[in-house]
Fold each of these.
Amino acid sequence: MSDKLLAIARIKAPQGLAGKMWISPLGQADNSFLQGYSQILIGRQGAPRSVVSIAKRNKGFVLELAGITSSDQVELLLGETLYIDRAWLPEPEEDEFYAGDLVGLRVVALSGEELGRVTQVFSTGASDVLEIDGRSMIPLVEAFVKEIDLDQGQIIIDTAEIGELLD
């Protein structure tokens, strides 16, 4: 396993009594979300768990993992982040990225002022949104986000366009 893990979802709630769970993807997800991946990590230090099933439902996604067999077990995991090893994924196309690649990046204004770090990426339907230090939310659109530089570990934004969103 590589040392680069991607946060892909959070555990929201049990689904039924047999250990299935509702999960909330970090970033936009379609019906193929997690298809083809055989293992997932619960938390950064978690051991890989085999994916038994993943299904899109009206309210979101339902995940079943090997070894989790009751709603009580799921209750203990509420709020946990699910990860996959970055090495398990194909490389994205140029100017594309995985939402999980953005978590932890510095957010920097055009002026050079560091504004915080991306703590979460989630989808609103219209666009993905960056959560910065758990207090500010910035839509991930070209009008606000001027550059994403994974090599430098930063996202450059135009604060003149979004000043009120940073308060």
Amino acid sequence: MALYSEAARCEPCSHQALLDEDIARRLVRAAAGCLSARRCPHYDDGWHVRAPEPATDSDDE
């Protein structure tokens, strides 16, 4: 498996790692729900993984 730190970066998406779908899904599974995968809007075959946005106090209202 390729190293995440060596993955190509997507400039339009704030230089997030540009992954293929299989690698992105493996990372999500390995992180036990702490990450989510989404298709890159700029590259047809590219995927990104990221942590969910933290909840804020205003979300409780």
Amino acid sequence: MKRRRFLQLTSGAGLLALGCSAARRPPPHVVCVLVDQLRQDSFQSFATATMGLARNGVIFDQMRSVSPWTYPSVISMMSGLLPQQHGADGFRKSRTLTTFAPEVPLVSNRLRAAGWETAAFITNPFLREWNPFHIGFGKFSADFVKNLGNTRAGFHDFGIPEKMFAASVNDELRAHFDRRPVTAPEFTYVHYIDAHGPWGGAPFAPDYESAIRYVDARIAELYSYFRRRYDDDLVFIVTSDHGQALGDDVHIGEGPQFRRMKESLHEFNVTIPFVVFGGDRVAPGRRVPFPCSNIDFAPTVLELAGLAPTVPLPGRSLWPWIGPGRAPSPPADSGTYLTVSAFGTCAEALVWNGRKYMRHLDCATGEETARRVFDLAADPREERPLDVDFGEAEERLRELADPGAVRFEAGLEPISDEMAEKLRALGYVD
């Protein structure tokens, strides 16, 4: 059975089961905390408070982001769609970002339309008001960072040190919710930038470990706050949008030609944390060992909310492995798809049966320029390509990459004259 058909069937079965219990108990409140640029191994080593909470909940051991940078990854997470379906990406020949269509079915839009109270606290300029990400949130707070518009140029000068770090975000979040009684199910999305930087003016030492330890404490504070607000009736999710190159990650193996930060599909760029905890809504002490993708987030939230997707989704709901009760057996490994197509880099990959099958493409023609196969168990850092062909993985990769009938047209707006002048003054454009 093809993955897409299998996922549609399992998602429908989950919704049917949830519908039987929904009459007895309303859906829980949902809080999703995303720590930008947080790789899984560093999270497990340094986010000790959050990992302590996660051990009493559910830990996903093989979660990957569908794309190695923020904009397409987050929109995929929130829509359940592949980047080639929703269209949020970087233009292949410049540093301009596409603007995805407001019709893209973000889970926040769906929840808000169903009567949920929705709020977002955003510290990444890619998600500011220049694109439609904000429209699904009744409360949208993003003034922690500058609005750079639809460009990646100048990205390392977006910070507002007195506002952008997690303690300030938490302060504004508490001020918002302290004024509001709980009158409906609530969905809150918090996007922390601390592990990403810039770190000028940060309330911690300017290094990756210190940033993670700092934001870890803020996550624990946030969880305590929402536990009190919801009388422990919540599902609290901690994840990331992509990983981070550390040490010699870029230089080993075939080196920077193929292993660039945020532009390759190697494990250091795409392996991310995904942990869930919160009261009796979440299974205690469970680890999920099979490969998953962050496109699974949207169908998962829709299922726990008792809502059906408005379009067929390529991902699966993970709720059967998160909710209390006996978890189903792991599904057959139908493959996890990865892609990047921005800023002069185009590639796609399939993680399947313990191997990664990677294709590098010419962005102008779409022609394949190189391919690699890695054994992820024997070679977890992907230094030694195997001398094997793709075999059956060829067709599986083609199937997973196919957007099918669900595809939204993205726009490509020119950078405004005002923004171009600001970037020119900073030396980022000519």
Amino acid sequence: MLEPWNNKEIFPPPINTFLSTNKIDISIMKTTMNNIVQMLLKQSPLHQESAIMSRLLYKFDKKFRNDIGYRNFKKYYQRKRIYLISQPGKC
């Protein structure tokens, strides 16, 4: 018997489908999605805050590098920067 990772004849899992009994209003869903995209595109305060945080981190890195709160602040800045870089609509 072959191990699962060596077996070349593995079939994909079954796909279960069902008929939905709920009525979905596509126009409401479309407007909601458009509102979400518009909200995500209007995040200039986050960019300004990120610029200020970057300057603070650069200026006080030598003084507070061993402080736990400073390290958490730095981690928060890194996560925020990754979020701002990966925003939808910036492609």
